[in-house]
């Protein structure tokens, strides 16, 4: 058990959470970001992108609904751009990448609870059996029978592959995301050759446009996650501009609605730059979401750099996150 989880359980049992829950919330917007919804233990690919089961997502949504409005669309845009005053804590729930389980698992939960979600699909993956780079990296490392894996791009990396495959996967994911990795295709080819195994036929893995339109009709919102899920900081300004403007154009054409929000792929501090933010604004996005932790406190919100958190999988830890951010009495 982690120290954070242990502390959260102690605070809950001692009644601290109940006291915090009774306090007024601070003005701001807390954004919870998910990728995949389902059982991580059953995947052959990257387990790190699973944030919750369908049942756990429902529990999270009900917890939030009892304490703050869950918003999306124009309401969220107005709150984050200062067009509407923030008088309390609001929540938003986002989903990156557009995996099929967003439609089969997350969407039914949100619809049944009357909660809006914001989905950021990758244009090239829509309706496809694509295996993105993070899933391919995880599959190759998880299934190789070789004791050592190595790549030379962008700089040499050599990893011992033991019984803990998750520990061996993480260094390769970090290495791929380095800003100086200007040749992602070469990186993947080197890893394929080092691992000595190939990908299986996966079947459809991402939601299609018909499913997206059904979700929109039920009150869900969509935004851009670029055309190819490239790491924008690795690309030229011209390529970044194309990724953003073309993805927005296709989304508006397919879904028949104004697209005003963007989620930067990966979303870390090294995954996009100040120039990327300017390009996003020029491309017509009024909101652009990072993924670096923290929340959006009234008076310090930057619409081109909206903060999101990864919700803790255990409810007691999520309570710790939410109360710690929105009550300002202590830091979890």
UniProtKB/TrEMBL annotation:
Cellular component GO terms, alphabetical: extracellular region
Main localisation: secreted
Keyword terms of this UniProt record: Carbohydrate metabolism, Glycosidase, Hydrolase, Polysaccharide degradation, Signal, Xylan degradation
Molecular function GO labels: hydrolase activity, acting on carbon-nitrogen (but not peptide) bonds; hydrolase activity, acting on glycosyl bonds
GO BP: any one term: xylan catabolic process
CDD domains from the UniProt entry: CE4_NodB_like_5s_6s (cd10918)
Every NodB homology domain range: 89-332
Subcellular location: Secreted
UniProt xrefs under InterPro entries: Glyco_hydro/deAcase_b/a-brl (IPR011330), NODB_dom (IPR002509), Polysacch_Deacetylase (IPR051398)
SUPFAM superfamilies per the UniProt record, alphabetical: Glycoside hydrolase/deacetylase
PANTHER family, per the entry: POLY-BETA-1,6-N-ACETYL-D-GLUCOSAMINE N-DEACETYLASE, PTHR34216
Protein name listed in UniProt: Putative xylanase/chitin deacetylase
The species this protein was found in: Terriglobus roseus (strain DSM 18391 / NRRL B-41598 / KBS 63)
């Amino acid at each position: 058990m982690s120290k954070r989880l242990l502390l959260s359980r102690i605070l809950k049992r001692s009644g601290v959470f109940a006291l915090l829950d009774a306090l007024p919330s601070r003005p701001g917007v807390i954004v919870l970001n998910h990728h995949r919804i389902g059982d991580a233990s059953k995947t052959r690919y990257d387990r790190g992108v699973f944030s919750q089961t369908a049942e756990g997502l429902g529990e999270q949504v009900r917890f939030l609904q009892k304490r703050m409005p869950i918003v999306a669309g124009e309401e969220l845009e107005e709150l984050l751009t200062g067009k509407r005053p923030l008088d309390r804590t609001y929540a938003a729930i986002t989903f990156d990448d557009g995996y099929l389980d967003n439609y089969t698992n997350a969407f039914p939960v949100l619809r049944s609870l009357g909660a809006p979600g914001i989905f950021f699909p990758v244009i090239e993956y829509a309706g496809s059996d694509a295996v993105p780079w993070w899933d391919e990296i995880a599959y190759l490392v998880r299934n190789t029978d070789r004791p050592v894996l190595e790549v030379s791009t962008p700089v040499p990396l050599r990893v011992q592959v033991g019984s803990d495959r998750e520990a061996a996967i993480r260094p390769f994911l970090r290495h791929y995301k380095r800003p100086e990795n200007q040749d992602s295709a070469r990186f993947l080819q080197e890893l394929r050759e080092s691992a000595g195994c190939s990908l299986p036929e996966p079947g459809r893995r991402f939601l299609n446009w018909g499913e997206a339109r059904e979700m929109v009709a039920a009150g869900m919102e969509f935004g851009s996650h670029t055309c190819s899920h490239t790491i924008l900081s690795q690309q030229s300004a011209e390529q970044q501009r194309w990724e953003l403007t073309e993805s927005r154009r296709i989304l508006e054409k397919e879904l028949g609605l104004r697209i005003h929000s963007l989620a930067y792929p990966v979303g870390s501090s090294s995954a996009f730059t100040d120039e990327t933010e300017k390009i996003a604004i020029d491309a017509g996005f009024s909101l652009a979401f990072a993924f670096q932790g923290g929340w959006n406190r009234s008076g310090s919100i930057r619409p081109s750099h909206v903060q999101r958190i990864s919700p803790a999988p255990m409810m007691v830890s999520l309570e710790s996150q939410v109360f710690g951010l929105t009550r300002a009495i202590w830091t979890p």
